[in-house]
Amino acid sequence: MGLDQNLASQLKSIEDKVASELKQCSDLDALQKIKAYFLGRKKGKLTQLIKLIPSLSINERKILGPKINQTKNKLLTLFQEKEKAFASSNVKSFFDPTLPGEKPIYGHLHPITQVCYEAEDIFEKMGFEIVEPFEIDDDFHVFETLNIPQGHPARDMWDTFWTEDNFIPITHTSAMQNRILKSVKPPIRAIVPGRCFRHEATDARHEHTFYQIEGVYVDQNISLADLLGTLLSFLEAFFQQKLKYKIQPSYFPFVEPGLEFLISCVICKGRGCATCGHSGWLELIPCGPIHPNVLKMGGVNPEKYSGFAWGMGLDRLVMLRFAIEDIRLFHSGNLRFLEQF
Ligand code: FA5
Question: Domain 111-338, what architecture?
């Protein structure tokens, strides 16, 4: 067999092999491998034949060169067509409007965060500014500036955590009051949503880690009516219903008088249910007019200005909003619980 015939049969065999391999080839990866096997720059089967061309005589080159090139072009065309076929089948499935949509897997905000944002929105509309608390603070801000000096028995009202170097993972968001009073001249309207920590035995209503929203309002001629109006407006906007309210005496060294703000139960509308202990009332927000000593320590003249403060439990609001019976579910990591919100 002459060189001419020998080469022609090699070229034919390459073309046949490529055609049959491409028939079975079902993805782009496999296609690249076949292409490399026949046209790869160093060891491709056809490439090796192409490399022979310079060693041929001029006459052989004239006859065989075009044949080799023809085969090369044929193969390139076959590969291109296959590539196009893969590309168009992918595009089709990507844009196919008849396919059912795939639900993307997203997380969502924790119910406490959702309700916190909602409460912040309402207070912002009422003209309050949002202030972030320090999660670790000192004795001066957590107690001293709140009219609770060293040795004051009221310190025992809170089961406080202490670090080894005498700092405090904040017991309450009231720790920010002094900084707020010092930071701007009255009128002051600020809320402090933040995480608090207490060394408490946990139960369905108490956690070691929970959230409060502190409120501080200072201006001239502020009276108890402003406090009651502010809290009622917030709660009616939050629960989207008209509420009855009442106050009862309480004690906190940083307000005078100390009060507890109660609303008619939002679950039973005041008729009495398990949530309100069948009293028809929910004890919701400890509050009161800011003690003159606290104003003084914050650089605010109590002769000229007065104000009020409150510290409401955010977890409690979330529990009421979603009828959650056990506060410990919030940080349980229980997905069946969390996926409901
Ligand atoms: C205080 O922390 C005061 N700083 C509130 C205050 C601010 C009064 C300004 C007056 C003026 P108390 O310890 O009662 O108060 O906590 C306030 C609210 O936080 C409670 O009504 C409750 O809703 C929530 N709370 C307290 N301890 C826990 C706990 N262990 N788990 C969940 N929520 C809690």
Answer: 2-Layer Sandwich (3.30)
